[in-house]
C-alpha cells in the first residue's frame, strides 16, 4: 500500500515498525503541499489533526484517513463541516500506542466497518472498534495509572522502582507506570489527562502536582 504519514519523524518510524517496510511510505511534517502526494496514496495516518486542517484534504479521491484521536474526537475534528469523500477513523498516535497487536479504532459511521476491515487486512493488523471519546480506551487507562503512581510517590507510599516492578509482576504489563511515562513522554501524558478531564470532569483525571512539577522542570 501507499501510506502517507503526517507528523513527526518518530511517528513515521513507529508506523513502519507496526506495518512493515513492504509498503511505499510518504511523509509530511504538516498539512501543507498535500496536493502533491494525496492522490498517490491509499491511506493516510494523520498524527496532528485539527478542525482547520480538514480542508487540506479537498479535493481528493475517496480516501481512508486515520486521525490521531488521543486528544480530540472525530466529532470535533469535523466540527467545521464534512467532506463526503473522506472515510475517517480515529486511532491513538501517542508514542508506543500504534505499534501494538490490536488497534483501537473509533469511527463516525458503522457503514465504514467493511472498509476498515479490508484496510487492516492489507496492513496486517487486527483492530477493535471503540467509542469516539477523548483518550479512547487504553491510553486513558494507562495515563490514569501513571497519574495515580505519581500520587503514590508524592504520598511516600512506595518508590518508583517498587511501583514499576509491582505493576509488571502483578498485572503483566510490559512496563511500569514510570517506565511507560518516559516512553510516552511526560507532556503527552499531561495533555491526555487534561483533555480527558476537560471532556469528563472526572476527578480521577485531575493531574498530580508532582507530575506537573516534573514536567515543568524538564522543559
Helical amount: 25-40%
Please name the fourth-level CATH homologous superfamily of the largest domain: NAD(P)-binding Rossmann-like Domain
- Element order: H for helix, E for strand: EHEEEHEEHEHHHHH
Quaternary assembly: single chain
What does this structure look like?
- This protein is of the alpha/beta class and 219 residues long.
- It has two domains: 2-129, 3-Layer(aba) Sandwich (Rossmann fold); 138-217, Orthogonal Bundle (N-(1-d-carboxylethyl)-l-norvaline Dehydrogenase, domain 2), CATH 1.10.1040.
- The protein has helices at residues 9-19, 74-77, 113-123, 138-154, 160-171, 177-184, 186-200, 209-217, and strands at 2-6, 24-28, 43-46, 63-68, 86-91, 102-107, 126-129.
- It has a seven-stranded mixed β-sheet with strand order 2-1-3-4-5-6-7, covered by helices on one side.
- Helix 4 (138-154) crosses helix 6 (177-184), helix 4 (138-154) crosses helix 7 (186-200) and helix 6 crosses helix 7.
- The longest helix is centred in the middle third of the chain and has 17 residues, at 138-154.
- The mean pLDDT is 92.
Features:
219 residues; alpha/beta; Rossmann fold; N-(1-d-carboxylethyl)-l-norvaline Dehydrogenase, domain 2; 2 domains; seven-stranded mixed sheet; 8 helices; 40% helix; globular
